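User: Structure please.
Assistant: Input sequence and predicted structure:
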Amino acid sequence: MGCNSIQLLLLALLLALVADAEAKVSAIIVFGDSSVDSGNNNMISTVLRSNFKPYGRDFEGGRPTGRFSNGRIPPDFISAAFGLKPAVPAYLDPAYNIADFATGVCFASAGTGYDNATSDVLSVLPLWKELEYYKDYKRKLRSHFGQNKTKEIISEALYLMSLGTNDFLENYYVLSRRSSQFTVQQYEDFLAGIAENFIKEIYGLGARKVSLGALPPMGCLPLERTRNFMTAGNCVEEYNAVAREFNGKLQTLVVKLNDELKGIKVVLSNPYDTLMEIIQDPSSYGYESAAVACCASGMFEMSYLCDQLNPFTCTDASTYVFWDSFHPTDRTNGIISDHLMKTVLAGFL
């Protein structure tokens, strides 16, 4: 073997080692609600959609995709940070196929929660249905890539879970069914139990890397501040206290699962403190407003109430913490995702 051949062989081996080192996370697999839904609600019969302008106006190509933002959502930033695709596609989007989904796929549905009763409010996908689609995804992977490659994709993927806000704000505090059954602390325990069972189920299906999303300071969402007119639009501290309490229970769950499930690594991705810092001192982050959103009046509009005909929508969403009354802007999603990548998700790099 000549000198050049040996050099080429060594170079090929080195490139293979580098590729292997960079592929610690094979795919981003997403479960949850509108905080992470990249467009599944476009394909189901529900009024809760965002596949129209001005949603997506700052996304690549300036097109609405069904993401509840002017641009990207956290899974997109996280996927790019791991060197995977720049945007995670929705599983129900017919524009994509199983080859596209091999490095990232989203099963999330805006408006859903841990509690099946939450998904019933706006006729969206319940969490159990998201899991059924995941099982279907696994079958398609096996058919396309074979058993060994599928096992590698599934076990090396990072699973992102982000839900729970709707369980409280669109269910427990609005409808009487759950609030008559449970105290809020009991309801927190009920939801944490569902989260535990869900993670155990995907563990049984091969998941080994899981990011469990915590709740944001949900009492500071523009919609809740608008509803809180009795205190001049301040944050609803009761809701923030519940978020902190529930997040503490999720952290306890993370410790428990890591102890009980062999080979799993679960982390709590908690946006609460970062988002609260931004809300309390928006100017230090270059924002002009945190109390109201960019779209329409910024006080209560989202989905169809946030449309391109509204004359009050801001011209520069990057100066606003929130895009609509419930969801952050692309820029805010980027700040939160960057913080998570530098902290709890850094262990997966």
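The chain has a mean pLDDT of 92.
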